[in-house]
């Protein structure tokens, strides 16, 4: 029998990164009996392309998306860019304007709508810190991107 | 004796809006023994200025910020704009591009850094839905803005 | 027997709006033996939401997308916004910054990739004029948005 | 005998709005023996289109640009938009995000380059306040746009 | 006797890049009896500055603009940036956000308005693909920038 | 006896960079009897992070902000980014889109409001040239950022 997805795919992704930031195993334990597929990971960079790349690689390696289908890469890519907008708040730049991020990410795939014709969707959640490239000169940041797949 | 703020001010604000979206009372119960001051509320609009206004009004009414001090209004305003960037992902517009939001917000004020000289900071968290002005044609969205005060 | 789509979906959409701007019937004649589904139309406004709305309405009325499926509305909406970026070049605003557009639009749906697993995609092409709200004080503008559906 | 323009057209425009903000007549006295043509004015609004419109109207009335030539309107319009970017710092919006401006503007036309083949250029300078729509809750803001004409 | 420019300068530039993408010679044949001056070329990069540079170099080498006049470089530069907005749709970035382009460009110069006092204008059209730096993971993209010169 | 700050902190910062651009010593002489603390400097780059870094370093070395307090670095950083918006007018990029700047900067700290509870504020003013990386192919540019501290 299929379980119902009682929690939105975005909220589920956010809770994953918030739990994950405390303790990695907890994330896997608490959330593994969901109907959603997901993967979690970490990335730190002064370089947005490393953030994009880390999330894409993890998503393909964990088979959240099919590596050889452009439509799935396209869906994931735009969800990542939207999540980055939340993290960078206005300018999708890091090192170019002297800032760096340390992020946890979650990529979630599943059917969040009751109407099954709505099909599968992707959520990318990011949570961590952003700031000067000096330890401690930073504050928290979050982002969420959602796309149909 | 002062309790320690074990949770970051941004994460605390995010958890408030995520809990709040399930059940309002829960938010108040679970989080009221924190060292942070906070208020929570709802706003729905095709109009960003209503979102800004709802958050500012709630923050002043709940004495999270001092109404007559421009520096506090200025700090809150920029935190709100940053949170809106996450919600709108690229264009801080709603009705102008035919979309609407239904949001819960949390405004949190406190001292998130161990070094007390860092003083007070503000976090504004937003969580809800964004989409076409037709019920159901929408997905989740989130935003977080943080500023010194 | 299925014909091959020899022309990219974006180029096909652009040719539709460029032909259309000369003579409406020509557009239908020259392009109707394609494998793509499409609709064409006109919109003029100082208001982006009227542009979005005109394209969405035409796409639903001509059954390019299914009205009651959010995933299809979502795909079209983001393709429209991307096309608008080309038209407005930097700020997705019209009347707010004292300018107006007169546009022809084409919405095209089909399978542009040889690998059939790539499925269906949407292209939105816009071509027309942008300028001051005074006849003649305007120049041409174009935009193209593409999304998987 | 033609005087040399010893001061850049942008600096000249900025000095006009900075002087003007102290005392209007001073602006005219101190700067009237320059080789540049200019006009100065005031505008206050929650609406960018009123700012654009006030500057365009003053420029045409004072014959800084020719009303019926699109190329001159086009040059001025883009210089105004660039100056507005400085004033609004990231989002060319006022009332939409609950803020208002009170601005002095200067529009300057002339030949700022020694090589006469460089021809005429336009500078638009803005200086004033931006903030909440409540007196006193505001700070200073400036913008400068420059374009060939 | 001077031929009339029956086609807008933007449409002419777009048709050049669309034809060019099929067969280079065709572009030169079909369009060479126009009143517009133009050049066409190709550029592929993960780097916007290579795109800007390729178009500027081709325009100077083909004497579409005068190399030593800043006003002409300035006009071309802003037309290129506007065309890039259409290609990148929201963020003028390529490699920084892990994407690459393969583009054909056309730069057209001439008098598109009946009123000869409107003088010369420039159009920059771009057409090609944008996507992941992996062959096939890409879709079409277009951009058009127009400026007075 | 405390002197009154008759001039706004933003105007004061602008006058510093405008005077400075003529003659460095003049800047120090004319402005040193103000109630504001300030530092001035120069920076030239195709790289925004060098601009950010030059201003931060000068501000810390001249004790305009406290190096080890994140809240002061945070306030300065956002004021710098706002000033850069004015300089770059729409895209906070330099070398990425083939342009370079030569800038004078002023960082001013003080109490610009009569109500002493408004406390200290920071202004960052930038003035100089922006253009192609070729001498002479450039025009003036300005930016101003203001933040509470």
Please provide a written account of the structure.
The structure is a homohexamer of 149-residue chains. Chain A has 149 residues and is α+β, with helices and mostly antiparallel strands. Chain A has one domain: Hut operon regulatory protein HutP (Hut operon positive regulatory protein HutP, 3-Layer(aba) Sandwich). Chain A is 37% helix and 28% strand. Chain A has 4 helices and 4 strands. Chain A has helices at 9-22, 24-31, 48-61, 70-88, and strands at residues 37-45, 100-110, 121-131, 138-148. The first copy, chain A, has a 4-stranded antiparallel sheet. In chain A, helix 1 packs antiparallel against helix 2 and helix 3 (48-61) packs across helix 4 (70-88). The longest helix of chain A has 19 residues, at 70-88. Chain A is globular and about 45 Å long. Chain A starts with 8 loop residues before the first helix and ends with a strand. The mean pLDDT of chain A is 91. At the A-B interface, helix 1, helix 4, strand 3 and strand 4 of A face helix 1, helix 4, strand 3 and strand 4 of B.
Write the layout of secondary structure elements.
Six copies of one chain form a homohexamer.
Chain A: H1 9-22, H2 24-31, E1 37-45, H3 48-61, H4 70-88, E2 100-110, E3 121-131, E4 138-148
Any descriptors?
homohexamer, 4 helices, alpha+beta, 4-stranded antiparallel β-sheet, Hut operon positive regulatory protein HutP, globular, 37% helix, 149 residues
Relative helix content of chain A: 25-40%
* Gyration radius over CA of chain A: 15 Å
Number of strands of chain A: 4
Query: So, the CATH homologous superfamily of chain A?
Result: Hut operon regulatory protein HutP
Largest interface: A-B, 27 and 27 residues
Strand coverage percent of chain A:
25-35%
The DSSP helix count of chain A reads: 4
- CATH topology of chain A, by name, is Hut operon positive regulatory protein HutP
Count of distinct structural domains of chain A:
1
Give the overall form of chain A: globular
* CATH class division of chain A: Alpha Beta
Spans of chain A with pLDDT under 50 lasting ≥5 residues?
none
